[in-house]
Design brief:
The chain has 4 helices and 6 strands. By secondary structure, the chain is of the alpha/beta class. It is globular.
Length: 117
Amino acid sequence: MKFLLDAHLPPGLKRVFASAGHDAMHTMDLPLQNASKDGVLNALSMSEQRVVVSKDTDFYYSHLLHGRPWKLVLVRTGNMSLSDTRRMFEQHLTQIVNALQTFTLVELDRSQVSGIA
């Protein structure tokens, strides 16, 4: 599965996805890096069928109203240390991927993965 990690998440998180066999990129990999607009991320998500992983609720509303991004993992954790964030994704990545087989919108909090839409 292909993922696009938004600016609010650490770039090093790509390694968690890659070690599980997924193609992951971060906004830092884009020409405008973390200054990339949501529209650019949505367009990339649609054209490459990438799942956007973000804390930004703008993507939530865009997905519900316009079907963009292609698929979304909305991270609802608030601030966490880098190591706690990495552990959370390591613990829940299989559940996230499984939920994305059925849902186009998945929420992740500190303790669970929920399929929303």
